[in-house]
């Protein structure tokens, strides 16, 4: 695993490529690393994978978006970077100070920004998709949601 680490004013950041990674597995591994104190940047969020029947997965996410009141919430993101960030949030103790601090150390981008195209990105091997059944890309799900 090669990781591009670069200095931030207060620590070190890790760049992770989410392309062809299962979103849930990636999120659980990222959540553990965030709780340990790492600053993490995830790129290519729209190319991450959600396993299952595409119609059922799209229905599942559309129910989350349509739930609640448009003025008072609950609000669920429609963009791929927002959905992936929300999946990671679900794996953190978000209602405690430790979880909120960890969540602030996470940045997610739809594609690779120009300033991050400098070198190699880490791909988490345990999250790489080796699926032999149906799956759908997160970008396609969000396109159906209107994001």
Overview of the molecule:
The chain is of the alpha/beta class. The chain has one domain (4-145): Ribosomal protein L13 (Ribosomal Protein L13p, Chain: A, Alpha-Beta Complex). 35% of the residues lie in helices and 16% in strands. It contains 5 helices and 6 strands, in the order E-E-H-E-E-H-H-H-E-E-H. It has helices at 23-35, 54-66, 80-89, 97-104, 138-145; strands at 4-7, 12-17, 39-43, 49-51, 106-108, 135-137. The strands form 2 sheets. Strands 1-2-3-5 form a 4-stranded mixed β-sheet. A two-stranded antiparallel sheet has the order 4-6. The model is unreliable at 1-7 (pLDDT under 50).
Task: Pick out the low-confidence regions.
Answer: 1-7
What is the C-level CATH assignment?
Alpha Beta
Which structural class do you get from the secondary structure elements? alpha/beta
Specify the CATH architecture: Alpha-Beta Complex
Please give the count of helices: 5
């Amino acid at each position: 695993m090669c990781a591009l680490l670069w200095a931030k004013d207060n620590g070190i950041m890790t760049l992770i490529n989410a392309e062809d990674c299962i979103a849930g597995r990636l999120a659980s591994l990222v959540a553990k690393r965030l709780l340990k104190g790492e600053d993490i940047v995830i790129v290519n969020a729209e190319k991450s994978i959600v396993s299952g029947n595409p119609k059922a997965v799209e229905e599942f996410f559309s129910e989350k978006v349509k739930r609640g009141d448009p003025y008072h919430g609950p609000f669920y993101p429609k963009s791929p970077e927002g959905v992936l960030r929300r999946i990671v949030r679900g794996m953190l103790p978000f209602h405690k100070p430790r979880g909120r601090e960890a969540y602030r150390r996470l940045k997610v981008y739809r594609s690779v920004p120009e300033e991050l195209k400098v070198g190699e990105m880490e791909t988490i091997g345990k999250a790489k998709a080796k699926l032999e059944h149906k799956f759908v890309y997160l970008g396609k799900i969000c396109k159906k949601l209107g994001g």
